[in-house]
Design a protein that fits this description.
This protein is an alpha/beta fold and about 270 residues long. The chain has one domain: Rossmann fold, CATH 3.40.50.620. About 50% of the residues lie in helices and about 10% in strands. About 35% of the residues are buried.
């Protein structure tokens, strides 16, 4: 089946930057904060921000848990002109580990020779994501800025985000684009290849990758999600078209559908 996810990258870049410029102007805010992970989504959002603001108006934070990914951050920041005082590279490990201790997320498992401490990876990952957002919003408060999100449409539809963590933002420049479309835009924006070719990861624990958790690729997911949600194909129709993992992809989306609806409230 033909891939209908090809975008006009030049037109899309202008559409996004026009939207960002208008949004900030409407709010009377001239500064932006962004969390830079070293991945393609945050890099693309950052490059788009640079088209809207001068470097002195952008505040960047790399909030790492295990170790700083300077090999990815430095190429993204190179020649950006962002003042050194606007860049924070900071370990959130002490904060996260203390929260993990307080909440009892780590437990001991006995073996013949010793006790090994084991953590719930999902709960720990949620703490990491929400801790990052605390830092970003405090930085925004300090500098009278809006927090620029970095979520894409694939992550949203798959429910691959932490509520009030990486999902929290004031503006989402690429939230309407599937992951493979973000990659197209990243190429147009001339984002360094080292960033574009790396395996997508939320950086929640060593060796963690998005696709490793999914059991399918973003390329597979995007085509299935597009047909199901945008074109209203059934899973059966998608499978008959020859696309792989349709049932698994839509099942994951449905299991996380509640995330799209919270907070539940009485209307009016």
């Amino acid at each position: 089946m033909k891939n209908n996810l090809i975008i006009d990258v030049e037109k899309e870049a202008k559409r996004i930057t026009d939207f960002m410029g208008k949004t900030f102007a409407d709010q009377g805010i001239r500064n932006a904060v962004i969390g830079l992970s070293g991945g393609i989504d945050s890099a693309t959002s950052f490059y788009l921000l640079r088209k809207v603001f001068g470097p002195e108006n952008i505040y960047v934070a790399h909030l790492y848990y295990s170790e700083a990914i300077t090999s990815m951050i430095e190429p993204i920041l190179k020649d950006s002109g962002i003042p050194e005082k606007n860049i924070r590279i900071l370990s959130i490990k002490p904060c996260v580990d203390e929260m993990v201790r307080i909440l009892g997320i780590e437990r001991g498992e006995e073996s013949k020779s010793r006790t090994t401490m084991v953590r719930d990876k999902i709960r720990t990952g949620n703490i990491i994501a929400r801790t990052r957002m605390i830092f970003l919003y405090d930085l925004a408060k300090k500098n009278h800025a809006l927090v620029c999100g970095t979520e894409n449409k694939s992550e949203k539809l798959l429910g691959y985000f932490t509520r009030f963590g990486d999902q929290a933002s004031d503006i989402e420049p690429i939230g309407h684009l599937f992951k493979t479309q973000v990659l197209q835009l990243a190429s147009y924006l001339d984002i360094p290849e080292i960033v574009r070719v790396q395996k997508p990861t939320a950086g929640l624990w060593p060796g963690q990758t998005d696709e490793g958790e999914f059991g399918f690729t973003y390329e597979e997911a995007d085509r299935v999600l597009h047909l199901y949600f945008d074109k209203h194909f059934t899973v059966e129709q998608i499978e008959k078209s020859g696309l792989r993992n349709a049932e698994k992809i839509i099942d994951r989306s449905k299991r996380n559908e509640f995330k799209q609806k919270t907070p539940y409230h009485i209307g009016g």
